[in-house]
Every structure is written in C-alpha cells, then in structure tokens.
Amino acid sequence: MVRAASRWLSARPSQNFLSRQGATPGTVSRFVDQTDACAAPGWLSAQAPVSFSEIAPGDYHLPVFPAETAEWMAAGEGKFIIDGTLGGGGHSEIFLKTGARVLGVDRDPEALAHARKRLAPFGERFSTWEGNFSALREIPEIQEGARADGILMDLGVSSRQLDSAARGFSFMREGPLDMRMGPSSPRTAADIVNQWPEADIVRILFEYGEESKARRIAGAIIKQRSIQPFKTTLDLASCIERAIGRHGKTHPATKTFQAIRMAVNEELESLATALAAAPHILKPGGKLLIITFHSLEDRMVKRFLKHRSTPFLDEPGWPEPKPNPDYQFQLLARKAILPTAEETSLNPRARSAKLRVAQLLALKS
Ligand SMILES: C[S@@+](CC[C@H](N)C(=O)[O-])C[C@H]1O[C@@H](n2cnc3c(N)ncnc32)[C@H](O)[C@@H]1O
User: Fold this and answer.
1) Do 148 and 286 form a contact (C-beta atoms < 8 A)?
2) Ligand 1 nearest atom to the CA of residue 57, by list position
3) Which of 43, 77, 245, 339 is most buried by a 10 A CB count?
4) How many angstroms separate the alpha carbon of residue 41 from the centre of ligand 1?
5) 186-264 has CATH 1.10.150.170 classification
6) Which uninterrupted H or E stretch holds 290?
7) Ligand 1 pocket test target in 96, 106, 126, 159 with most atoms within 8 Å of CB
8) Residue 58 pLDDT
9) Domain limits, CATH 1.10.150.170, in the chain
10) What is the atom index within ligand 1 of the atom nearest the CA of 87?
C-alpha cells in the first residue's frame, strides 16, 4: 500500500545516496530510513521495506496541542470534522475517538496511506481526500453541499517528512533536493537552486526565510551552480555554511531550507486560499482551528481572523464606522494559544507552535 502510494516520489531523477544514507544516525532513523526505501524504490532499493504497522504512531508524528484541539473542536457523535493536514493521523484519531466523522486531507500520498491503515478501525467514520487544502471546496462531498462542524489545519511538514532523508527536507541528512510535500507541489528544491534567477532566490530567502544574509547566500548558490548543479541537501547546506559561516547553535542553513520548502510547496499561497474558503465549507457555528509554526503563517492567520471578526470598520476620514462586509467569525480565544511547558518538554517541535481558534457566525449569508 505504501509502496504503491509513494510511486510519485520515485519518478524523480534517480540519484544514489546509499553510501552515505546508511550512516544516518538517530533513534528514529531505524524506521525512517527503512520506510524511505518504500517511498523511493528507485533511489534506495537496497534497503529493506518496512510495514507501517510496525511503526508506533509516535514514530510518525506526535500531534501538537492534543488536549487543546480536542477541547476547542468539541467534536462528538454526529459531528463532521475536516482534518486539512492529516499527516500521521494523530489529530484525526483524537476527533474519531469522540464519535465524530472525519475527512482527512493531505497532499502526501504516503501520509494518507499511513493514516488509512492506522485509522482503519474507525471504519466508515474515517475517509480521506488527496489534495491541497487550498482546494477544499473541490471535495466532492463539499460540492454536493455538505458542510463541516470543524476544520483543523496543522501547518508545515510532519516529523516523518522532515526526518526522511529521501524527501530532502533536512539539512542534517543527505538526500535529493526535493522538499515536495506531494506530487501536486509544482517544483522541487533542485529546480529553485539550479534554475531560478538570483533575484528570485534572494526574494524568497528574505520573504519566507526572513534571512538577513539572503544576498550573500544567493550569490554563493549562483557561483556554485555555475561549476556544478546542486544535487543533494548536504551540497546546499555546506555551500550556505561556507558563504555565511556558523555562529551559535542554529545551523546556518535553517532559514534557507525553510524558505525553499515554502516556495516549493507554495505554503503561504495555499494558506491564504484555504482561509478564504473556510467560511464556505463550515456550518454556521463551525470551528476553525489553525496551528502555525512560524511568524509568517501566524501573522497571516492573525490578520485574517482579526479582520473577519471585526463587526465595524473605522478609518480616520470617515464620519462614522461602517459595517464590515467580511464580518463572519467570532474569535474563541482572543490571543494565540501557546504550548504548555509540559508539552514542549515532551515534544520539542511544539516549541514554536501557536493555535488560533475561531467560530463561524450564524449570520453567514
Ligand atoms: C504538521 S503535519 C500534520 C500532523 C497531523 N496533525 C498529525 O497529528 O499527525 C502537516 C501535514 O499536512 C500536510 N500539508 C501541509 N500543507 C498542506 C497543504 N497545503 N495541503 C494538504 N496537505 C498539506 C503535510 O503533507 C503533512 O503531512
């Protein structure tokens, strides 16, 4: 099942990373590297495949804010929840356990295959849809008029994607410069670093990575690729390290990898489209829960919800406030919810997570 679902990845140009891949350290790599063999038979065929049934859920991805998402979503029997970022299925399982029906959406066929297997015991209450959450309105059930009691979007990549060398998300693991969340992503990281004009690389590093050394890094990429195109994550990571040096604990390639990943998957564009679509997919009273991991995403969600939850607009030149035609939501939590110290100690990836929660008003037209 996993092998079949992941064939899109093996369609990438074949590159042999076996010699260095085998040395990947770390506790999860036993699962990660073996599963990579399934995900990318063309690249890693010498490694033994692993069945997902051997992987405990925590080896795939530990969901953030488990208690808070359960509480704010208030799922239950008779409720219909859309999990727009299914991943390992952790949040979906929380909702399914309340008796709700869940539709899990993901761009990644491997995530869908894993979650289908994990959540099979819930029978027909769990279904999946492969695609970008920006296209939730295209889901047949939604087109036929179904509306959800809740939508969750837990943004970014899963631990499983990040830790899989063959996916190319990590500057710590040798892999192809891919970084696509799924086959619908329009380009790979290699396309960007080997083909994009310098000015566009500078722009994404500034905009998506908030990287102050964007020009220096882009210059080094252009120089390096004129000698030899980039092939691997470590080629790129070491080029960046040579260009800007290593200072402090954070790896110098961190912001560049984030920026390239966001450009590869058009993450902010997808989020903007999904936010605008949410009022058309939710029932009046339906909940919108969004978990972000960096300031750009959170800023977009915060501004969207602030505007859509403001009944009247006012500007200095106006004689009086005017009704806001976009007033659709009520903020259930005025500020972003942050993880508890207990959660961050159990799950370090939760450190930068923020949860925002709103409810569609009944006055929806
Ligand atoms: C942080 S993980 C979600 C983890 C999940 N909540 C769990 O409990 O395991 C994000 C997942 O959403 C998917 N994803 C991210 N952006 C997406 C998008 N625009 N459309 C569809 N899926 C997306 C990724 O492929 C990944 O599997």
Assistant:
1) yes
2) 9
3) 43
4) 23
5) yes
6) strand 282-292
7) 106
8) 55
9) 186-264
10) 27
CATH superfamily of 64-159+268-360: Vaccinia Virus protein VP39 (3.40.50.150)
Q: Give the pLDDT score at 59.
A: 80
CA triple 35-41-93, angle to 5 deg? 35
Mean pLDDT score of the chain: 86
Ranges of the chain whose pLDDT falls below 50: 1-6, 11-57, 364-365
Residue with tokens 């208690």: 67
Is 219 in contact with 198 (CB distance < 8 Å)? yes
Task: Return the residue whose CA atom lies nearest to atom 27 of ligand 1.
Answer: 87
CA of 64 to the centre of ligand 1 (A): 12
- Residues present in the chain in total: 365
The pLDDT of residue 249 is 86
For the chain, where do the domains classified as CATH 3.40.50.150 start and end?
Answer: 64-159+268-360
The binding-site residues of ligand 1, defined as CB within 6 angstroms of any ligand atom, are 61, 63, 85, 87-91, 105-108, 111, 132-134, 154, 156-158, 181, 270
